[in-house]
């Protein structure tokens, strides 16, 4: 590498990852940067990935996307959480709702008060505005004043990932990103340093650059195939390795949540959009054949299938380093975890923010690269633990679920469960993606009930606590009753 400023960024691949990166760079970087993107229509994209988490709002805001335009362009709907159907035992469900549960009464989290009163306090989710709105099929974009007794709804989106990528492409090209169509044949590297210097396409074109972003999906053409950065296989913890995805006719009332239904050897997703419903069956090929998986999927749709099921194979895990030399991987090339908590698109987003935070001006400092890789791995590993919890803490029948119960889990997760069970306390480091209240809902939903609560929850007397809880429930019910139906809100946006 010479000491010239790093100003030419080349993005290899134009799936969700490639176009999110291109749109973000084109919007946020100064005009001196030149951004190019290569993609191959012949190869295509994964094209599933339709459920998100609330942080996606920050990405859309950074790009200044108008919400009504975005919802119309992507056939989007709102998502208030994920309903887990049958994950602890068949026939029982819980929701991982976004936003808070309850209101903190001082120094300790709300759930300790609920634990103290749980014999009479009802369900934990009675104290979640998001859960109540999701089950009622209602949604509001109103923001209450800061001093209101309850905060507003916290929402994410369901959208058609192909339409989202197309929208981002228009956004990026309008801001100067150059798109090249063609197959990448090879990466040209500096003979001594091994740093990437250019992409060569099969059509003979050479695209030089200073920094290369590998968004080539599961192929990981630059970071994996060319630079040889290995991959950690996590299938011993998350054994599902295949998925079938199929859209079907939509339903009249669009539910504002993702549904994840446990099946004999995996689970099925249901993601309602405006024009159709997305469905998929994620399963473990050691326990279920492809034909059996397809039959289960097709037998559990809302309406007529609109295509043949699309098969996908994957190895859950993570790239050993997401940044090597001057190549940074984003999206599926950096790793894959099944969409149980809708984290892949978020990992692209946080990879882009981290990359912008660490963007080198001239030479790449090895210490910066090391820290980037440490933060990326930490984020992946904590999400991995959260997903394992859904599988491990189950009481379902069948050999697949028995094997999940029996598996040895990462020490970091085992310690979390042990502390929660004994004290109700949730250990969480500041940089983890999932909040304490997210962990709380899945721990309880999977049947892990603490045997104690924090002693400070005893500060209120029984009557004060009962009154507080009853008031909270009433406020939530009143608020939700005043919200429009989700469909009505979508219709209002279409008219905006
Ligand atoms: P891809 O979509 O595979 O794009 C790769 C790009 O690289 C394409 O443009 C391709 O043409 C190009 N390319 C590859 N090789 C070459 C070459 N030689 N020359 C030129 N171009 C090349 N995420 C969520 O957040 N929520 C979900 O609900 C969700 N559900 C999912 C369900 C399943 C079953 C799977 C597998 C994934 C899901 N995801 C989900 C993940 C999400 O789909 C991906 O994170 C997202 O699509 C990003 O993919 P990508 O852009 O990295 O790769």
UniProtKB/TrEMBL annotation:
This is Tryptophan 7-halogenase. 7-chloro-L-tryptophan binds at residue 79. Keywords: FAD, Flavoprotein, Nucleotide-binding. It comes from Sandaracinobacteroides saxicola. L-tryptophan binds at residue 341. It comes from the Bacteria. FAD binds at residues 14-17, 332, 345. GO terms for molecular function: monooxygenase activity; nucleotide binding. Transmembrane segments: none annotated. The active site is at 79.
